[in-house]
# Entry
Amino acid sequence: MFYMRRIIHVDMDEFFAAVEVRDNPALLGKPLIIGAMPGERGVVSTCSYEARKYGVRSAMPISQAYKLCPQGIYMYGNFHKYAQASREVAKIWENYTDMLQYVSIDEAFLDVTHSAHLFGGAIEIAKQIKARTLADVGLTCSVGIGYSKTSAKIASEEKKPDGLFEILDVAAWQALVSNRGVRTIYGVGTQTAAKLEHHGIKTVRDIIDFRIRVEQILGKYGHEIVQMAQGIDERRVKGDTPAKSIGKEHTFQKDIGDFNILRDTMVLIAKKLAYKLQSKALYAKTVTLKITYAGMKRNTRHDSGDYTNHPLEIYERAAKLLEKVPHQPARLVGISVSGFSDHMGEQLNLFEVTKSPRPERFLQTVFNLQYKYGLDKIKTARELLAQNNLKGEWY
# Structure
């Protein structure tokens, strides 16, 4: 039997700012800017719609935001509070399908193709999600319904904030977006758009009309862009199941005897693991190092300590484990994290009670920038050094 897919995309409205307004109604209607204080060397993590009217945007330097909106209310973010709100809205989403794919802390795709009839249809589910989010969590969200992930995502953006919109089929998709800019299409960023516009391809309709040229310009990637423009998106919603561990490993092109190269590789692995943990609002208690030597002999070491999702802490714990394994030429190095919790759960000792919350604020800001611009766009000096040292070895 043929089923018309029904995909819902839920996107929380100005999530961090909305949580702050919910908890302090005096902030309602005010230009709220979260990230750092004026005069500090920081960036905007997020801001309210009132602040956006002045031109303030995420990832903008605080100094620039202050010039645009000196009357704004500036504050540090509270990642733990936002994570708790994220868990609360996720519990609502989970009532409607087990095919639920979290995109970030404040948005997800739901495939309700086979469950919509239980609730009166996809639109009824969307209405219920919006109503329950407001009643139970005190926040608003924008919900899009589509026949694919792309159409659902575009639909959720159509009536922001607090919106609900449906793109029923390919015909509705083409009628809505054909005359919009090429960046409407998933995967078309600033550089790709510039390439296309250089060749006179400025709209979604142009991509379709000049599909052969697009594929010539962008290669295999161009074929995907053309399909997206035509409204074809067969990507599935990948239902998330609780993972017992998250890991990443790297196999070298040739056996490596220099353990400094292994350490550089571990720096970049730790960064990716930390990003995955942060995107799921999780902390890990156990760090595991895996080494495979020439001849496929394996060696693993484990370390359990305080819960963390900080890349430097993951790396440092793995690096200590590296000192305990035989220093022989290795063909693979990997790190995994396990023992998850949704809070740090650490016990502070006498010397930690005054620990500054600023590293957590910084980590949150870095995560927001990486989510917005890509993981490889934001690098620490240590990560840059590691990547330079590895040259073409790291992928």
User: Anything to note?
Assistant: The radius of gyration is 23 Å. The chain is about 40% helix and 20% strand.
